[in-house]
Design goal:
alpha/beta, three-stranded mixed β-sheet, seven-stranded parallel β-sheet, about 40% helix, about 400 residues, about 15% strand
Length: about 400
């Protein structure tokens, strides 16, 4: 199968490219390398050192026996995107090319506007490009369990039966997003569903839980990133980074917020199952992708216990919650569709955490040098001014041109 990954340089994208290549798929990808820019803007970096895109592509070709066709482009560059899809002719397109951070979107107006424009316009560009150049391809779009919010109901996989005034219908389950980022994902979901209805596209909308874990190889050029700053570091990854440098773990508020979680390896398994089992033409389907439901306090305790194997003493010191969210709430999402396709979890979460801590310990000095970025500074109710600034389109274009020159030199 020919699989085109939009956002192939990211935490999930680079890992997925390798996972699919090992399964024998022909992988191509596109990226504007913006995740590197955003993390740099947060004055942070990946805890695991990562190679340049040129080095990654060289290693990919060496290890998998075939080069990856890579397109240095932003999805909002519709002309370039259309040319890439027309050239690659994918059977499946995996859309991971969005800004994936709630805190980043809550910094101020400019960041909220950028995240929504980047995500919603990029997805629209991709939908039109698929309609015109690969209408039979299967779109696997990464959504977020955060689209649902925390309703006082069980959460179905996208749709539920409703009875109102004596009539019944199947309707999309209401979305109650909690950040400007998550609302951009809601808009994406509606646009993808409409494109399937309008043009006969086929799509799987993956409502993914919080992903954790490292992905390391004997060839360091194949390592994927792991972020720990407040904007791009997910809770469990951030806790593990705090633990290895001797900092207290910092759950927000009461720490009773419950979410769905899965490991990076399990995310790869789920995404590949979705890719390999496409829906029918015109079908828009929703998969809730998670392995277990835990509270933030549960995560902190799991990390504390895992650290005992490394003789690391870990404190837990909750912080005032910078977010506007329910801290005590019902949370029971369905997740049957992927299990029906064959998903089975790999390692237990406590073993995954021990592995992650072991992978991070050699990089403790690198993390410690940026320890200030572990604490939250973005507050949901007061996102008026901030030291971070969104890089302009001209600056991003200049960065991409420099990457292109580096590729030419090598």
């Amino acid at each position: 199968m020919r699989v085109f990954i939009a956002g192939v340089d990211g935490y999930l994208g680079w890992t997925l490219a390798q996972h699919l290549a090992r399964q024998g798929h022909d992988v191509g990808g596109a990226d504007a390398l913006l995740r590197r820019i955003w993390v740099d803007e947060m004055e942070s970096l990946s805890a695991i050192p990562i190679a340049s895109m040129d080095e990654r592509l060289a290693s990919f070709g060496e290890h998998f026996g075939k080069p990856m066709r890579f397109f240095a482009l932003d999805l909002r560059d519709h002309t370039a995107l259309c040319a890439a899809l027309a050239e690659f002719k994918p059977d499946a397109v995996v859309h991971l090319a969005e800004c994936p951070s709630a805190p980043y979107s809550m910094i101020d107006f400019h960041h909220a506007d950028f995240v929504q424009h980047n995500n919603v316009s990029g997805t629209l560009s991709l939908l039109f490009a698929m309609r015109d150049h690969c209408p039979e391809a299967h779109l696997v779009k990464l959504g977020s369990m955060g689209e649902y919010g925390t309703p006082n109901l069980d959460i179905p996989e996208g749709f539920f039966e409703v009875e109102y005034r004596g009539r019944r219908d199947q309707l999309p389950f209401p979305r109650q997003a909690g950040s400007w980022y998550h609302w951009s994902k809601v808009f994406d979901s509606h646009n993808v569903a409409f494109a399937c209805k309008l043009w006969g596209l086929r799509a799987t909308d993956v409502m993914q839980g919080v992903v954790y874990g490292t992905w390391l190889d004997t060839d360091a050029r194949l390592n994927t990133r792991l972020d720990f700053d407040e904007a791009f570091g997910t809770a469990l990854n951030r806790f593990c980074c705090q633990a290895v440098i001797g900092k207290p773990l910092m759950p927000y508020g009461q720490g009773t917020q419950r979410r769905g979680f899965l490991s990076l390896a399990d995310s790869m398994h789920c995404l590949s199952l979705a890719i390999e089992h496409p829906p029918a033409a015109s079908e828009y389907r929703v998969f809730n992708q998670l392995r277990e439901v835990l509270s933030v306090n549960d995560l902190a305790q799991l990390v504390r216990v895992a650290c005992e194997s490394f003789e690391l003493a870990v404190e837990i010191k909750p912080l005032d919650n910078p977010r506007v969210e329910a801290e005590a709430h019902h949370y029971r999402p369905d997740s049957q569709h992927l299990r029906q396709l064959g998903f089975r979890q790999s390692l237990p979460i406590d073993e995954e955490i021990r592995n992650m801590i072991g992978d991070l310990l050699p990089h403790r000095d690198r993390i410690a040098a940026h320890a200030d970025q572990l604490a939250p500074t973005v507050r949901w109710r007061d996102s008026r001014s901030h030291s971070h600034s969104v890089r302009t389109h001209d600056e991003r274009d200049a960065h991409e041109r420099e990457e292109a020159r580096e590729r030419e030199r090598t």
